[in-house]
Amino acid sequence: MPARFGADVGGTSVRAALVGADGALLTPLLDLPRSPDLIGQLADLYAESAERAGSSVTVVGAGLAIPGAVDPATGRIGSVPTAPALRGLDPAEVRLAPGLPLGVCNDANAAVLAERAYGAARGARHVVGLFVGTGVGGGVVVDGALLTGRAGLAAEIGHLVVDPDGPPCPCGGRGCLEQYASGTAIAAAYTAATGRSVTGAAEVALAARAGDPQARAAYAGAGRLLGVAAAGLANLFNPEAVVLGGGVAAVWDLFGDDLVRAVERHTMPLTRRGLRVAPGRLGRAAGVLGAALAATG
Amino acid sequence: MPARFGADVGGTSVRAALVGADGALLTPLLDLPRSPDLIGQLADLYAESAERAGSSVTVVGAGLAIPGAVDPATGRIGSVPTAPALRGLDPAEVRLAPGLPLGVCNDANAAVLAERAYGAARGARHVVGLFVGTGVGGGVVVDGALLTGRAGLAAEIGHLVVDPDGPPCPCGGRGCLEQYASGTAIAAAYTAATGRSVTGAAEVALAARAGDPQARAAYAGAGRLLGVAAAGLANLFNPEAVVLGGGVAAVWDLFGDDLVRAVERHTMPLTRRGLRVAPGRLGRAAGVLGAALAATG
Q: Is the confidence at residue B84, as pLDDT, over 90?
């Protein structure tokens, strides 16, 4: 059975698995803290996955999702803020095993490709993906092709401007969506409202489930802003589907209604017609599945 | 000499000319109030242009720019709010003269195609065009191709949301960019600040040129918001060029600095690198030139 190896390099962890042609995970999703020798670690993860899969599986390619940009002209990795060692790497020169070529893709781009192939946007030719975790990432498919822009930097949905006079953003701008609607922002909003410090948005979600009105309000506020952004993106891309993925998508019940209401309020009527707005279906595996789609070979 | 006929149907007027392969106007730009028999009027404008051009010019196609949507799948005209008679028209079935096929294109899309071919974005493969007149229109070129979306409704830049609680917009939404940064909005902002009613943004521009600080502020405010929108669009499309066209572009000196400053403040550093931000160069002829580019034949 043919398979592709997919690996998703996060800020602090690496996930990997072998993926079948139909998007099924053929091996358990390995999830490890990132090692300083990232390429060595990827080779190890590949070897372990291949061993687990056994001899009935033939690996025909490998793909890597990275939290950074890939130059669409050269295929080389550009800026990767959390993994500077990857910068300038030409994946065509890397082999995780003899004869195994490597493809590479931005992680949010990989996730939208996976949701389109196997998940919430199946069959759509025009898709906008918002991926909300620690930050807010984005991926856009235009007429079946990834939107890359001139230098692979496109689809930075987290850096749409919500308030030009808002707080400074690490990107250098001000008032970016990521400052209001990321997991980090949800936790900060809750702390600002209650004076209670939390470990992150997951803790706020637990409080919201337990009925804490301020925790619910933190999620509702983020949902509304994500919906306003999604509406603007719908007016811009006229897609079939808008998918909200990433860690925060796991608690869609805490903000999905607010998000959908804002989309309905701010999307132009003809554009809204038939528009699907849905949480991602692939969860933690989206990046790995998308990386496998980006595999060459 | 081969030429294409281009016609730009506005809300109340029609412009037309014959265009050479290099984008030169081969006949004077005719500009008439729109007649109820629009197709008949277009045929007349074609006949007049062909007569003026004389026998050295061979017309090989005709194109129409419309203030509405074109279905990318069928080529048929969709919704055209200011010209309902065009709705459902299949341009392939229209002949302005025997043997002369007709192409059709959204007007802001036509304008960005023209600016890319002959104007401020020459040679760029990724371009965002904002067209500011009575309203705010948009056109986007992604890797050399027009962004159409699923149903030809994409690139509605005027309906990005500036303030979710802002004033209602005719589109059905609220707080759309068009409510803050169109010619109409510039005139309204001036009237709100001074109590003086004006005929439109052109009158405010005259006042600004004469040193009226509130007129200058109305343009500066619009420029800043257009710059914030342009920055978001740059972060989204990672283009080589952002072009600001339409009637308001003629007074770039009144808001260009504010626009560029906002772009610099809100665009991600790598995306900003080498990004051109410039006023359109084609003025009133942009739609006609773009329509000729959309000509079939």
A: no
